[in-house]
Amino acid sequence: MGHFHPPSIAPGVIALIWAVALGAFIYFGLVAIGTSGAFAIVVAMVSFAGIWLFVTTRGAGA
User: Fold this and answer.
1) How far apart are CA 62 and CA 46, in angstroms?
2) CA–CA distance from 44 to each of 3, 9, 32, 61 (Å)?
3) Where are the domains of the chain?
4) pLDDT digits (tens, 9 = 90+) for 37-46
5) Phi, then psi, of 60 in degrees rounded to 5
């Protein structure tokens, strides 16, 4: 019986997953505390870009 190894996932994909998940968390958190939807989406998109850039440049492989 061979050993099971999960597939290798590109670092850019991992960065995208982190950015989407945390951006959504920020968006829904802002909406939950009563901010306007437009403000929440702008802050979430800026956060998404920053998180993606941070994880891409400073991720585990860097």
Assistant:
1) 23
2) 41, 25, 13, 26
3) 11-58
4) 999 999 999 9
5) -60, -30
Q: In this structure, which amino acid lies at residue 3?
A: H
The token pair that represents 4 in the structure block: 């099971």
Sequence-distant (≥ 6) Cβ neighbours of residue 15 within 8 angstroms: 51, 52, 55, 56, 59
CB 15 within 8 A of CB 59: yes
The pLDDT tens digits of the residues spanning 6-60 come to 778 888 888 899 999 999 999 999 999 999 999 999 999 999 999 999 988 887 6
Give the tokens for residue 9: 């996932």
Q: Is the pTM of this model over 0.70?
A: yes
DSSP at 26: H
